[in-house]
Each structure stands twice: as structure tokens, then as C-alpha cells.
């Protein structure tokens, strides 16, 4: 068995450290749980949202957010978040630097792209980021997924990995935080139904690995 740990968008822009971006309640509390899952893995992979000022999703006010957009690769409005060179782009303190990961994906760099999952650059899931290929080239059998936010990028990444049919996918809930409680529950139930193993704590992750 070869294990990869996936750290999805564990960036300050998704935490209360950056209240003007997309603060996820408790988003800054996930580092110990992410480090614990990384310690169980043969390969550590990560992703970062990486958006520019010209991003199509961009709105300026809170109440303009979460509105549907009719564009092939940007389906929702958000306030600006995770711009390279700003605090919001940085990984949470205590995590490895991107160069210390075995594989790393910067996503949403082009103004018209706002993907959620770390596996594809486009919403139609045609243009691979190379993450799935990296895992397969290295004979990874099991992936442990954590990060931000549970109900957006984490859920989408877990679903994309599960949909390959090539990996046992474990969602480590303690290493995630989400935006909307209803959305989190819905996504976790749907992932469970699709075969993703839901592990509440690191001990549950260890049990799933031993099963
Ligand atoms: C995310 C909303 C918008 C995420 C990114 O990382 O979950 N959510 N952009």
C-alpha cells in the first residue's frame, strides 16, 4: 500500500486571518490534523488557489457573493481571495512550503478559470493538473484528503479522486473546515455514498488504513 496525503488549499485567505477574503470558521485550526495525516503518507501533495486581479468571479461586496455565473469555467461570484504575493495566498503557518511538497498544484491562475478540485483546471474536468497521473505513476493506492473548504474544494477533490476508481479515498474531517453547515453535511453524505471513507479523526484514519 502506498499512501498520499492531499492538503487542499490550506491557505490563509480561507481563514479568519484574512477576514476580507473567504474566511472559513476555524480554517486556521487544521494544521495539527493535516500534519498528522502527512506523517502517515509516502507522498505529500498540495494545492493553492492562485487568483489574479482580473479574475472573472470577482465581486467587491459580501452580499454580491455566491451568485451563479454563466461562464464555462467560473460558475459563481466570490470576493477576491488568494492572490499571489498577498497574505491570503500563503499556506497556513506550520505547514511545509510548497517546494517541500512532493507535488503541488496552483489553480485558477488564468482570469477565466475558477476550478474547485485539485485534479482539473477546468470545470468540465478535461484538462488535468497532473495530480491523478502523479499518484498513478507512483503506485499510490490510498489518498487521505484534508484542507479548505470542506464543502467546495475539498469535496470536489475527494470526488475527483474517487471517480478515477483507482484509489481508496479517505476524507479526514478533523483536517477540514467548511463554509456552510448544511453544505458540509450534504457533501459528506454524498461522498460517503460514492464510496469515500469518512474518518472523523486521525485515529479513524489509522483504523481505515489498517482495515
Ligand atoms: C474555495 C470557494 C471559492 C475552496 C475556493 O478552496 O474551497 N471555495 N474558492
Structural write-up:
This protein is α/β, with parallel strands linked by helices. The protein has one domain: Rossmann fold (3-Layer(aba) Sandwich). It contains five helices and eight strands; from the N terminus they run E-H-E-E-E-E-H-E-H-E-H-E-H. The strands form two sheets. It has a six-stranded parallel β-sheet, with helices on both faces. The chain has a two-stranded parallel sheet with strand order 3-4. The longest helix has 14 residues. Pyrazine-2-carboxylic acid binds next to helix 3.
The N- to C-terminal Cα distance equals 12 Å
Q: From the 3D coordinates, which CATH architecture would you assign?
A: 3-Layer(aba) Sandwich
CATH evolutionary superfamily: Isochorismatase-like
User: Strand-and-helix sequence, N→C?
Assistant: EHEEEEHEHEHEH
**Strand percentage:** 15-25%
How do the strands line up in the largest sheet?
A: 5-2-1-6-7-8
Small molecules held by this entry: pyrazine-2-carboxylic acid
Shape: globular
How many structurally independent domains? 1
| Total helical segments | 5
Briefly note the CATH topology name. Rossmann fold
Largest sheet: 6 strands, parallel
**Percent of residues in helices:** 10-25%
Which segments are poorly predicted (pLDDT under 50) over 5 or more consecutive residues? none
- The Cα radius of gyration reads 16 Å
Mean pLDDT metric: 98
Reading off the top of the CATH hierarchy, the class is best stated as Alpha Beta
> Which structural class do the helices and strands define?
alpha/beta
For the secondary structure, the number of strands is 8
Amino acid at each position: 500500500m502506498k499512501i498520499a496525503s492531499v492538503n487542499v488549499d490550506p491557505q490563509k485567505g480561507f481563514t479568519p486571518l484574512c477576514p476580507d477574503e473567504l474566511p472559513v470558521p476555524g480554517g486556521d485550526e487544521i494544521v495539527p490534523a493535516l500534519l498528522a495525516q502527512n506523517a502517515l503518507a509516502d507522498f505529500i501533495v498540495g494545492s493553492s488557489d492562485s487568483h489574479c486581479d482580473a479574475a472573472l468571479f470577482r465581486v467587491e461586496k459580501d452580499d454580491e457573493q455566491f451568485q451563479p455565473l454563466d461562464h464555462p469555467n467560473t460558475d459563481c461570484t466570490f470576493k477576491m481571495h488568494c492572490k499571489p504575493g498577498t497574505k491570503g495566498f500563503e499556506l497556513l503557518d506550520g505547514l511545509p512550503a510548497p517546494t517541500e511538497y512532493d507535488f503541488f498544484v496552483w489553480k485558477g491562475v488564468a482570469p477565466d478559470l475558477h476550478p474547485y478540485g485539485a485534479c482539473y483546471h477546468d470545470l468540465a474536468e478535461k484538462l488535468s493538473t497532473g495530480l491523478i497521473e502523479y499518484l498513478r505513476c507512483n503506485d499510490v493506492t490510498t489518498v487521505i484528503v484534508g484542507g479548505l473548504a470542506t464543502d467546495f474544494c475539498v469535496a470536489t477533490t475527494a470526488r475527483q479522486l474517487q471517480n478515477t476508481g483507482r484509489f481508496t479515498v479517505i476524507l479526514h474531517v478533523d483536517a477540514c473546515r467548511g463554509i456552510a453547515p448544511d453544505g458540509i453535511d450534504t457533501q459528506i453524505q454524498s461522498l460517503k455514498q460514492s464510496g469515500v471513507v469518512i474518518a472523523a479523526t486521525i485515529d479513524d484514519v489509522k483504523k481505515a488504513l489498517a482495515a
